[in-house]
Structure formats: structure tokens, C-alpha cells
Specification:
By secondary structure, the protein is an alpha/beta fold. Helix 1 packs across helix 8, helix 2 packs across helix 7 and helix 3 packs antiparallel against helix 7. The protein binds nicotinamide-adenine-dinucleotide. The site of nicotinamide-adenine-dinucleotide (NAD) has 29 residues, from helix 8 and helix 9. Nicotinamide-adenine-dinucleotide (NAD) binds next to helix 8 and helix 9. InterPro entries: Ald_DH/histidinol_DH (IPR016161), Ald_DH_C (IPR016163), Ald_DH_CS_CYS (IPR016160), Ald_DH_N (IPR016162), Aldehyde_DH_dom (IPR015590), MeMal-semiAld_DH (IPR010061).
């Protein structure tokens, strides 16, 4: 917490206006590449949550009745504005998150993809009907918005993850209260401004900044009908349970420990390139990052020689500087936590073949260099925990079934990748791996917006995932009308 007055204090966005939070607790928002304080974010109170939910509830009364094509037109306009502001939004993401500018601009592109998908709401929200379910009786399934939706987002994708939620939620006629990550709240401020500029009516999208109290406020509020959460496993499980206890529909997309397998028939150079990007891009702070690499024994030495050299060649620095690939982790405590994991890995017997700890000493900001452990075992902490850092655990397996068994022993099952040239191996992998998003000969298998973001096991709590048709189902109720139309008068 801080007492500084010089930096900008963020406001909440409620009913179309920027308003001060009703709190005296604030937290600094840092540029993790420099340690500079960018802003102060309020830890808003339950009173602020109540104000936002009241505004969203009032707006719901009219927004749900705005014609679906008109809602779609606002989304088309929003898409245009986001494209025009893509570079500006990317810079905000880099400044508050630390990832390289090219990754940040690409992230904004992925967020825009969600808006494009949501703009298809007139067809996506169509119901269906059957003309003859009994003599002269027909049935029709209609879709309706659920009401006020609460969204809780993590620090690692300040643009894309909120866009997994509010564009489709409002397109389908709901109103929304977003609680962005307190570590990266700045991008959301610009996102809501641009949506208002596109013609979104007051109260449809609101922002309440803060942390635990705001989350609990949304989970407990009787007028919030659904909760979309993305974040860590521990918090996601809590959100899912507490939201469900209050009889809300909840989707919680959570932590990850993604395994990538490289077989002897793979194109090793392409695999090195894809896995370097997957493991060390965004400083390993991606829910789709490769955090465990399982190599077929026969090519392991050859692969590691190329891979380690490529990791050593990575350019580290401020993501705004040209050519930088690896930026900082998000906070000093994340840096310290990562350095502790590196020590733990060594203590538990893994072989440290590239140590990123030195970078932490040499720079301002919260840097950790690319770090690689070999000889990792499934009883080690660095295999088990989601480190969420540029630290890769490497293991060896004699064949694909052994590699798949290693991956399947993790409770976290967001994604998994396979590098191979064999169709039979690809089929074996697809049929036997217990993970929800698979990559074949690529490093980051994050599906485009028209598909569900479909983590398994403890990487997801709920039934309907974010994105794709799941998101339309999640944000709508169904009403089925069975109607008799007596035709006897026409006989
Ligand atoms: P986090 O769980 O710490 O925070 C997520 C949100 O929950 C934030 O808005 C935060 O304010 C709130 N929160 C934190 N602690 C809370 C508590 N005790 N009670 C109530 N609310 C609380 O996650 P993070 O560090 O911001 O983000 C990284 C995590 O998100 C990683 O685990 C990553 O794998 C996960 N993630 C998952 C996906 C996915 O699709 N599965 C996507 C992106 C990120």
C-alpha cells in the first residue's frame, strides 16, 4: 500500500462515469520492467460493488430489449475503434504487464477476435424450433440474457482475457461488472472508454477496481447472476465454490502445467523455435506456456544442444525496446518466488543447465533469465507447481506412451503439445492425453475465439468454457415454448 499522491489514482467506471472508489486503501501499479509506479489502484469496497451492480441492473432492463442487430452494430463499431487503437493498447499492455510490444500488440489482436466473434450475435443467439412435436404442436427454443454478469480477470492478459467475457456477455443482452487484475488495471480503462465511444449505453459495462473484497462482493451479491473468472487454481476453486453456494452459474478457468512432447521423427529446428517461444515468451506467464518438456530419449541430447543455445540467445529487457523477446515477471514477489523455485529445483536434485538468476541481480525491474532444468522427476516441486515464470523442466521418455503418462499425472491439464511427423502418433496423443487444448507441431495451442478455451481437470471449474458456442450458452437462458395450433377449422 502507498501514500504517494503524485501518481494518478484510478477511478471506477459506473453508469457511464468515472467515479472515486469509496475506500482509503490503495495499491501501486508498477511497470515491472523498471519498477516505476504507473498509477494507484483503489481496493474498492462492497459499497462500490453495490453501486456498480445497481447501475448494471438498471441498464439491464433496457439493454436486454435493444434489438440484437443494433447490439451487433455497436460491436462492429467497437471492433473498428480497437483496430485503430491496437498499437496504443499494446503499449499500455507492455507498460503494465512487461511482455514485449509485439506480443502485446498480438494479444490485442486476439482480444479483437473476440469482439468480431461477438458481433455475430444475431446468428449465434438464434434459437431453434421443430414444427411438429405432436399433431399440430410445435416447439421453439428461445435464448434470453441471464442478467448482471461479474467478470474477474488475471494480470497476464489484460486485454485478451476481459475480452473473453464482456463482448459476448453484452452482445447477448447482459450487463457486466468487470474487476480487472489489480496488477494490470490500466488496459481495461481504455477498453471501456472505447466501448462507450462505440455507442454502448451507460451502465452496460462497469468497472470496479480492487481485489478480494470486490470479488467477494460480486460472488455474494444476489443480483449478480453469473460469474466468469480467469486466474489461479486456488482462487478459481474458491470462486467456483462460493459463487455456486450463492446459486450463480460460474465458469472458472484456472492454472496450468502444460507438457510438450518431442518425438524422434519431429522437425527439431521447428520444435526448438516453437518451444522457445512457448516456454519463455511473455516470461512464461501464459496459461498455455510449455512448462514441462518431455523428449524422446533417442533425440534428447541433440535437441538440448540446439535448444539451450537458442535460450542463451534470447534478448532480455524492457518490452518496449526493439528486438526484446523476454521481459520481466509481473512483481518483485514473483521474481523472488521464481528464484526460490530455482533453489528448490537444485536442492531436490534436478540438473540446472541454464540459470536465469543472474539476470535478477543485473537489472532494475523484475527480471529472471531463461532457466532450464534437466533430470526433472514427477515428485519434484518444480514439476508439480505452476511456477508461472521463464523456468522450463525437461524430462526424458523412451516413447510416446511413457511421455503421455507423465503429462497425465499432472492435476493441471489446460494444454499439451506434440512435435512429430507421424499421423499414428498424433492420433495416439489426441486419444490418450487428458488435456483440453492440444497443439500439433506448434508451441502455443490457444484456440481462436470461435472455439471454447477448454481446460480440463483442475485447470477449469464449471461446465461451459469461455469463448465459442459455450460462451453463448453460458451467457443465455433457454426458454422452450411448446404450442398447440389447432388446425381442425381448416378441415
Ligand atoms: P490470481 O488468481 O492471483 O488472480 C486472479 C483474480 O482473482 C484477480 O482479479 C485477483 O484480484 C483475484 N484474487 C486474487 N486472490 C484472491 C482471493 N484470495 N480471493 C478472491 N479473489 C482473489 O491470478 P493471477 O496471478 O492474476 O493470474 C495468473 C493465473 O491465471 C495463473 O494461474 C494462470 O494459469 C491463470 N490463467 C489461466 C487462464 C486459463 O485460461 N485457464 C488464462 C490466463 C491465466
Amino acid at each position: 500500500m502507498t501514500t504517494q499522491q503524485a501518481v494518478k489514482t484510478l477511478k471506477n467506471f459506473i453508469n457511464g462515469k468515472w467515479v472515486d472508489a469509496k475506500t482509503d486503501t490503495f495499491e501501486d501499479v508498477y511497470n515491472p520492467a523498471t519498477g516505476e509506479v504507473l498509477a494507484r489502484v483503489p481496493h474498492s469496497s462492497s459499497e462500490d460493488v453495490a453501486d456498480a451492480v445497481a447501475a448494471a441492473s438498471a441498464a439491464f432492463k433496457t439493454w436486454q430489449r435493444v434489438s440484437v442487430p443494433k447490439r451487433a452494430k455497436i460491436l462492429f463499431k467497437y471492433q473498428q475503434l480497437l483496430v485503430e487503437h491496437q498499437e496504443e493498447l499494446g503499449r499500455i499492455v507492455t507498460e503494465e504487464n512487461g511482455k514485449s510490444l509485439s506480443e502485446a500488440v498480438a494479444e490485442v489482436g486476439r482480444g479483437i477476435e473476440n469482439v468480431e466473434f461477438a458481433a455475430g450475435v444475431p446468428t449465434l443467439m438464434m434459437g431453434d424450433s421443430l414444427t411438429t412435436v405432436a399433431t399440430d404442436v410445435e416447439a421453439t427454443n428461445y435464448r434470453y440474457p441471464v442478467g448482471v454478469v461479474g467478470g474477474i480477470t488475471p494480470f497476464n492478459f489484460p486485454m485478451m482475457v476481459p475480452c473473453w467475457m464482456f463482448p459476448m456477455a453484452v452482445a447477448t443482452g447482459n450487463t457486466f461488472v468487470l474487476k480487472p487484475s489489480e496488477k494490470t488495471p490500466l488496459t481495461s480503462q481504455r477498453l471501456v472508454e472505447l466501448f462507450q465511444e462505440a455507442g454502448l449505453p451507460d451502465g452496460v459495462l462497469n468497472i470496479v477496481n480492487g481485489s478480494v473484497d470486490v470479488v467477494n462482493g460480486l460472488l455474494d451479491h444476489p443480483d449478480v447472476k453469473a460469474i466468469s473468472f480467469v486466474g489461479s487454481e486456488r482462487v478459481g476453486e474458491y470462486v467456483y465454490k462460493r459463487g455456486s453456494e450463492h446459486l450463480k452459474r460460474v465458469q472458472a478457468l484456472t492454472g496450468a502445467k502444460n507438457h510438450t512432447i518431442v518425438l524422434e521423427d519431429a522437425d527439431l529446428d521447428a520444435a526448438v523455435k516453437g518451444i522457445i517461444s512457448s516456454s519463455f515468451g511473455s516470461a512464461g506467464e501464459r496459461c498455455m506456456a510449455t512448462s514441462v518438456l518431455v523428449l524422446q530419449e533417442s533425440i534428447a541430447d541433440k535437441f538440448m544442444a540446439k535448444f539451450t543455445q537458442a535460450a542463451k540467445d534470447i534478448k532480455i529487457g524492457n518490452g518496449l525496446d526493439k528486438g526484446v523477446f523476454l521481459g520481466p515477471v509481473i512483481r518483485k514477489e514473483n521474481q523472488e518466488r521464481t528464484l526460490n523455485y530455482i533453489k528448490t529445483g537444485v536442492k531436490e536434485g534436478a540438473k540446472l543447465i541454464l540459470d536465469g538468476s543472474e539476470e535478477a541481480k543485473e537489472r532494475d525491474g523484475y527480471f529472471v533469465g531463461p532457466t532450464i532444468f534437466e533430470d526433472v522427476k514427477t515428485d519434484m516441486t518444480i514439476w508439480h507447481d505452476e511456477m508461472f515464470a521463464p523456468v522450463l523442466s525437461v524430462m526424458r521418455a523412451k516413447d510416446l506412451p511413457e511421455a503421455v503418462a507423465i503429462a497425465n499425472s499432472s492435476e493441471l491439464a489446460n494444454g499439451a503439445c506434440l512435435f512429430t511427423d507421424s499421423a499414428a502418433s498424433i492420433r495416439y496423443f489426441r486419444e490418450n492425453i487428458d488435456a483440453g487444448m492440444l497443439g500439433i507441431n506448434l508451441g502455443v495451442p490457444a484456440p481462436i475465439a470461435v472455439f471454447p478455451f477448454s481446460g480440463w481437470k483442475h485447470s477449469f471449474f464449471g461446465t461451459l468454457h469461455a469463448n465459442g458456442k459455450d460462451s453463448v450458452d453460458f451467457y443465455t437462458h433457454k426458454k422452450v415454448v411448446t404450442a398447440r395450433y389447432d388446425q381442425s377449422r381448416f378441415k
